[in-house]
Amino acid sequence: MNNLPVDGTPLAADPLTRAVLEIDEYAAGLGWDQPARLFALVDTARLRQEEPSLAERLGIDETVTAALTPVEQDEVPADVPLDEFLGTIAWPDAVAGCAMTVERLMLPPSAEDSAPEGMDEAALAKWVADHPERQEVRMTVAVLREGKRESALRLREKDSTAEVLTGSDLVPGLAEALAATFAV
């Protein structure tokens, strides 16, 4: 039995999980070594009703059944630390949530424990980049205004829709930073 709809995105009952997987699949189609991307998550029915021309440009008609529609925002500046950039974001009330996809290098816990002490950020980044156990990962994290969270992780070495891991607490730091964009 095929568990993928026509577009290749895995089936998911939860609207936030579907949105995260849709964004992950979009990012996968762009390939690796991409900049961070930020998305507003909007209620699809509300978008069709209140912004019909935008919905039309996005290809969202009555056949689209997704509860949440990701809308990619302007480019995330590469020269500003991510936490500083996210600290400048404020969403209008029409935005139900937001999501971000970023690529990073990660190490298994055993390798992290062997990191030399006293390195500055640049030296640590080089040490991780040169480490033989490093793995490239694309993280897609989404939060809703009321606090619900979801994440998807895709390893470059297992770059397949079937290998994407999902869960609400996979990238807690990024989820916290995204949630803070809704703080009043």
Question: TL;DR?
Answer:
The protein is an alpha+beta fold and 184 residues long.
Provide the gyration radius in Å: 18 Å
What is the percentage of strand-forming residues? 15-25%
- Give the helix tally: 7
- Domain count: the total is 1
- Overall, the morphology is globular
What composes the largest sheet? 6 strands, antiparallel
Key phrases:
alpha+beta, six-stranded antiparallel β-sheet, disordered N terminus, 7 helices, 184 residues
What does this structure look like?
This protein has 184 residues and is of the alpha+beta class. It has one domain (15-104, 136-182). The protein has helices spanning 15-30, 44-50, 52-57, 82-86, 109-112, 121-130, 172-179, and strands at residues 37-43, 68-72, 95-106, 135-144, 149-155, 165-167. The protein has a six-stranded antiparallel beta sheet. Strand 4 and strand 5 (149-155) form a beta hairpin.
List the helices and strands and how they pair.
Elements: H1 15-30, E1 37-43, H2 44-50, H3 52-57, E2 68-72, H4 82-86, E3 95-106, H5 109-112, H6 121-130, E4 135-144, E5 149-155, E6 165-167, H7 172-179
Antiparallel strand pairs: 1-2, 1-3, 3-4, 4-5, 5-6
